[in-house]
Write a structure and sequence with these properties.
Blueprint (H helix, E strand, L loop, with lengths): L15 E4 L2 E4 L2 E2 H8 L3 E5 H14 L5 E6 L6 H9 L3 E4 L2 H9 L7 E3 L6 H10 L3 E4 L2 H13 L4 E8 L21 E2 L3 H10 L3 E7 L10 H19 L6 E3 L16 H14 L6 E4 L3 H4 L3 E11 L6 E4 L8 H5 L5 E3 L12 E6 L8 E8 L6 E4 L20 E6 L2 E6 L15
Parallel strand pairs: 4-20, 5-6, 5-13, 6-7, 7-8, 8-9, 9-10, 9-11, 11-12, 12-13, 15-17
Antiparallel strand pairs: 1-2, 2-3, 4-14, 14-15, 14-19, 16-19, 17-18, 20-21
Helix pairs in contact: 2-9, 5-6, 8-9
The structure holds pyridoxal-5'-phosphate and lysine.
């Protein structure tokens, strides 16, 4: 059983804290936002995003480095705009993400395109807008990309994603750097793939990349992957193919429930020391963080609809569900859940133990299990660490409209996405 967070502070989330009996994001009361905009409601702190970004920028101070925000973590336009305005590049994985990030004001030259299944149409779109680099994940993809580039009379800049066969020690669904994962080109095939890429008329080899998984909380897997990638850089360059940039992917974890991932700047100091030791310190470095830039910048507000005591379990039924917050159902993920306006006793050991569940018709529709809470119907709860992989993975299951979103900037609360109506969920369909 997990007790709820105390008002003394929410670990890892300095911009989300109680002031008196009110949970605040920066200077804005969450109870006010819930009343004004309804629930479920995602609320993000701009300052939290920028301070997470600053930790990476500190880690790379004095280096040639490009931070490409992995926008799959949260692809809401105003969130992308925060990072674009701060000079970030972006890691995209679909034509849709590319269109979004350009709409948010990104510089296409700072956009990279990852993913194992890029279509010809997506390649064409990306080449035509002039993205910085394709992270290619198979030899077959090299051939198709070269063909598409030649047909447009263009050259595609490519980096090959190498699968270093390193265990990121994370949930198996979000581990990507092991031999059994679909991602990247096997380490032992990489040199052959580079030679092939260098021989193709539509391609220009510019870099190497890897990404070993997500929610990584240890430094060692990064260091091991770095060693494997740098070994390859030596081999590829000895074959006469220069590598201009080295991209270490994303994956740094956040504190959901007492997790202690390394700080971004400390991690990068260690990785850069390795690069320096091999004489690669002056190369362009790229990284693709997603979760660590936005995860702890956001909360999801949800209202308690009903309390349902039971013989084996007490249920606290809320108005957010697995369509809004899919991580618990998909990965048994833990998110802290705290009251927006604590009742007397709600932050002590008092209270009842509940499973906090949504209205969707699946037993897997839970948001938190065995949580001790002092709540009543009508109370608003905040699901913490909801800035990453929540709204971007939300669905319309059970014909539920997606939640609204707010970006807080100091004392200002901007409505950045309106609540989707039930009508919006079927507006594109056609009766026959
Ligand atoms: C290629 C690639 N880069 C970057 C990321 C971002 O990962 P994270 O959000 O864990 O930083 C992912 C997702 O795991 C990814 O697949
Ligand atoms: N969706 C996953 C992360 C996937 C990372 C993308 N490769 C999560 O919520 O933890």
């Amino acid at each position: 059983m997990n007790a709820i967070a105390t008002p003394q502070g929410l670990p890892g989330q300095p911009h989300i804290a109680y002031q008196g009996d009110q949970l605040m994001v920066e200077c804005v009361r969450l109870s006010d936002l819930a009343r004004e905009h309804g629930t479920p409601l995602f609320v993000y702190s701009k300052a939290a995003m920028l301070s997470a970004l600053a930790a990476y920028q500190r880690g790379f101070a004095g280096r040639k480095a490009q931070i490409c925000y992995a926008m799959k973590a949260n692809s809401t336009l105003a969130v992308l705009q925060v990072f674009a305005d701060a000079g970030c590049g972006f890691d995209t994985v679909s034509g849709g993400e590319l269109a979004r990030v350009l709409a948010a004001g990104a510089d296409p030259a700072k956009v990279i395109f990852s993913g194992v299944g890029k279509t010809r149409a997506e390649m064409k779109q990306a080449l035509q807008v002039g993205i910085g680099c394709f992270n290619v994940e198979s030899e077959a993809e090299l051939d198709v990309l070269s063909e598409v580039a030649v047909s447009l009379n263009l050259k595609a800049s490519v980096s090959l994603r190498v699968n270093p066969n390193v265990d990121a020690k994370t949930h198996p669904y979000i581990s990507t750097g092991l031999k059994g994962n679909k991602f990247g080109i096997a380490h032992e095939d990489a040199l052959r793939a580079y030679r092939h890429a260098a021989s193709l008329p539509g391609l220009q080899v510019v870099g190497i990349d890897c990404h070993i998984g997500s929610q990584i909380t240890e430094t060692t897997p990064y260091l091991d992957a770095m060693d494997r990638v740098l070994d390859l850089v030596g081999e590829i360059e000895a074959a006469g193919i220069p590598i201009q940039h080295i991209d270490f992917g994303g994956g740094l974890g956040i504190n959901y429930n007492g997790d202690t991932p390394p700080e971004a700047d400390a991690l990068w100091a260690q990785l850069l020391a390795k690069l320096d030791a091999r004489g690669y310190g002056q190369r362009q470095i790229m990284i693709e963080p997603g979760r660590s830039l936005v995860g702890n910048a956001g909360v999801c507000l949800t209202e308690v609809l009903y309390l349902k005591p039971g013989e084996q379990k007490n249920f606290c039924i809320v108005d957010a569900a697995m369509n809004d917050l899919p991580r618990p159902a998909m990965y048994q993920a833990f998110h802290q859940i705290v009251p927006v306006t604590p009742r007397a006793g709600s932050v002590t050991a008092d209270g009842t133990v509940y499973d906090i569940v949504g209205p969707v018709c699946e037993s897997g529709d839970w948001i938190g299990k065995d949580r001790q809470l002092q709540v009543a119907a009508g109370d608003v709860l905040a699901v913490l660490s909801a800035g990453a992989y929540c709204m971007s993975m939300a669905s319309n299951y059970n014909t539920r409209g997606r939640a609204a979103e707010i970006l807080v900037d100091g004392t200002k609360a901007h409505l950045i996405r309106q609540r989707e109506s039930a009508f919006d969920t079927f507006a594109l369909e056609q009766l026959v």
